[in-house]
Amino acid sequence: IALHHVALAAPERLLVFGRDVLPLIGHDPAQSPASLPEINHHRGSTPLLVERSLDFLLAKPAARSGFWRRWLD
Fold this sequence. Notes:
The chain is an alpha+beta fold. Helices cover 36% and strands 22% of the residues.
């Protein structure tokens, strides 16, 4: 259902906070989130950036800088 909604909304890219969401978009939990640079759905593919949570970013300055580097890439 989540992939269907992504296809309907047709975003240019997705920013996902919380790794609990990844199985809803077809990601195998045994793999790292970094191995999912985009998600495929019936209307094409959408670039994806995954981060643990906003709380995690607020608590860890090093995580914020890493997130920012990935965001700029």
